[in-house]
Write a structure and sequence with these properties.
Radius of gyration: 17 Å
Order of helices and strands: HHEEHEEEE
Number of strands: 6
């Protein structure tokens, strides 16, 4: 006796929902391009216990620093804030943090004219500062979309990059910003122990 799971049209529509800027990417995620060394809890492709966020870079010459990154994340019900169907704030901060760090990695490669993950020098960044604002509760039963862009670069002993991240979810009137963050990352090269 076989049973089939049925999906209502509205559930099917939610599964296939795409952010207006998040196309069917024909490229690999930034996290996959930078190699198996990335074991980050939030975005490391080789961390089976992690969130495994996937972010995608898009060159955009109209922006001051040449591009932006997008991601889509499907949260699980256990990632709640103690209230059913409301995302835990720490989860959102983690997504913002990880998405910003890989945005910096992509920028680091692209600003040198290199393919993401290519070149002779590995580009790694860690968080030096994180500020998150929560605008509205983020539902867990809808996709979470992240968009980021570089807002400042300071070259020095440790290159510092400032990134703006907007987090959105689907509301009754379309996409709604539920959180935003500003992240400052520093260049640690190939090793965080330097």
């Amino acid at each position: 006796n076989t049973t089939m799971e049925s999906t209502s049209p509205s559930e099917e529509k939610k599964k296939n929902l795409k952010h207006p800027n998040l196309q069917q990417w024909k490229c690999n995620a930034i996290q996959d391009l930078i190699g198996s060394e990335n074991t980050c809890f939030g975005c490391g492709p080789t961390n089976p216990q992690g969130l495994q966020l996937k972010s995608y870079w898009e060159d955009d010459p109209a922006l001051d620093f040449g591009g932006k990154a997008f991601a889509r994340f499907e949260a699980k019900p256990h990632m709640n804030a103690g209230v059913p169907n409301v995302a835990y704030g720490g989860l959102l901060a983690c997504l913002i943090d990880c998405h910003a760090c890989v945005t910096a990695v992509a920028y680091g490669y692209r600003s040198k004219g290199e393919k993401i993950g290519g070149g002779l020098v590995k580009r790694w960044y860690v968080t030096a500062g994180l500020s998150v604002r929560y605008h509205k509760p983020t539902p867990l039963d809808k996709p979470i979309f992240l968009t980021s862009h570089i807002v400042g670069v300071e070259n020095g002993r440790r290159n510092r990059i400032r990134i703006r991240v907007d987090l959105e979810s689907l509301g009754s009137d379309g996409l709604v910003q539920t959180a935003s963050g500003e992240v400052v990352v520093v260049d640690v090269g190939g090793s965080a122990a330097r």
